Amino acid sequence: MLAEGRTRASKAAGRGSVAQAAEWEAVAAPDFDLEMTLGCGQVFHWVREGDGYLGAIGASPVYIEQRGSVLRVSKGGGSLAARYLALDHPMDKIVATFPGDPAMTEAARFCRGLRLIRQPLWECVATFITSSMKQVAHIAQMSHTLRRRFGARLDWNGRTLYAYPFPETVAALDEADLRACSLGYRAKNLLASARMIAAGEVDLAAITELEDEAALAELCRLPGVGEKVANCALLFGYERPKAFPIDVWIERVLREIYFKGKRRVTAKRLREFSGSYFGNYSGYAQQYLFHYARQTWRTRSQPVKPVKGRKNSKSISREVKESI
What is the pLDDT of residue 14? Predict the structure, then answer.
């Protein structure tokens, strides 16, 4: 799967370029879209560098660029990147489990090549604790600030980047240190969660052995972790394919497309519906719907039609339009 070579990333308009020729490994990546996978709101610290992206996988600096169905990865990072980017996921099998309604079909078409990343557990939990009521750009800003101030320094090809700080490192800080990273009220929750993990009160590694419901309950013991954040951790960190985080965007999708015209649809009903309707890979379906809605609902004049059997509408409701 891996083959060593050398490349110099060409200059891209409006971007810089990799300054020096860097050793790289070629990694087969069929049915994969690097830009969409890194930019769809599941991970927040990768930055454009030349024709690719530079980031940290755990404590390893990794540069990745895509050339068709092949990734060029900085030397030594090929296997790490292949696992991180879930290149072994059987995408045809996964997509085949999605329901065939118009909204899901269009989202699957639009998001072809998007894969769910295998994130380091603490980094995943901590990042989504800080994501509460924040947009993607703000979450990324907080992540980079935390890394730069408290994470281990990493160097690659003359570039400096930082790993996410360990829970023990965060646990030793004061709340004021975290508030200085623009975390606001999230600082208290991140600090308390880090201290529980550092003290062994919650063992993130041990949660891998629990069934989904028990794992969700254990994660929810952490301050700042409710059902949505716990499901994000289960989906993006623990590889639980049926985890279905319901944030503001997904709630809009469910109410506008699948429950159009229905009143008094409770959060519990949305959870029950999502857990049964979207199949064994409902987490993938969720991310596809999430990314598709964020990218298209801002500009389209006509929404995707509600599922067959439900009353259609001529346009997205005023409430949804105004909130987007």
Answer: 39
Cβ partners under 8 Å of residue 235, min gap 6: 116, 241, 243, 244, 245, 283, 286, 287
**Angle CA 133–137–141, to nearest 5:** 95
Tell me what percent of the residues of the chain surpass a pLDDT of 70: 85
Question: How deeply is 138 buried, as exposed, middle or buried, from its count of CB atoms within 10 A (0-12, 13-18, 19+)?
Answer: middle
What does pTM read for this prediction?
A: 0.85
Which of the two residues, 118 and 22, has the higher pLDDT score? 118
Has residue 92 got a pLDDT over 70?
yes
Q: What is the pLDDT of residues 163-198, one digit of tens each?
A: 999 999 999 999 999 999 999 999 999 999 999 999
Residue in 134, 246, 123, 233 with CA at minimum distance from that of residue 182: 134
Return d(Cα 231, Cα 225) in angstroms, integer: 9
Domain ranges, ordered by start, for the chain: 2-15+24-88, 121-236
Tell me the β-bridge partners of 274. Answer: none
Residue 7 has what DSSP assignment?
Answer: E
Asked if 139 contacts 324 with a C-beta cutoff of 8 angstroms, the reply is: no
Instruction: Say what the alpha-carbon torsion angle 312, 316, 318, 323 is, to the nearest 10 degrees.
Output: 140
CA 28 from centroid of its chain's CA atoms: 22
Sign of CA dihedral 120, 122, 123, 129: positive
SS3 readout for 172-240 = CCCHHHHHCCCCCCHHHHHHHHHHHHHCCCCCCCHHHHCCHHHHHHHHCCCCCCCHHHHHHHHHHCCCC
Q: Which fold has domain 121-236?
A: Endonuclease III; domain 1 (1.10.340)
The domain 2-15+24-88 is placed in CATH, from the list 3.40.50.11780, 3.20.20.20, 3.40.50.2300, 3.30.310.40, at 3.30.310.40
Residue of 56, 60, 67, 83 lying closest to 1 (CA atoms): 83
